[in-house]
Amino acid sequence: MGLFGRGETMKLLLRRDQRSGLMGKVIFTLDVRAEISSEERARIDRYKLGKEILYARNTDVPQDEGWKGVGKLLIFHAMNLTISVNDLVSGKRVECKDILEMLAAENQIKDAAVNFGRILEAAAHFGGEEVILIGADESQQAA
Hints:
This protein is α+β, with helices and mostly antiparallel strands. It is built from 5 helices and 5 strands.
């Protein structure tokens, strides 16, 4: 079984690590990457899903004017993080200031990956039909 419990082949790979920052402070890193099948890659390409954003951190754009606003905007872009479908497939590193932030990012990325898996599953059934057993117990559905 894959990530989605329906025989899907997508796998979400997560690697936690840490490193020392410039001032000796610990920076926590999370490397994320999805392994997908050729069929899933074809669905991503067919429906142009590669640029879809699955995760975003720091989405509140500063509104200050003048040089102060420019400075805040530069810092915002340096601190902002987004993960698109293409990023997930090719791999992306997330750097966090503490473990709690890293765990929160990890959980949000997992949720986004599961939701994306549902999108790929739905995309697989366009132009065909899907049979869903209603009222059957799970042992009958898995067969």
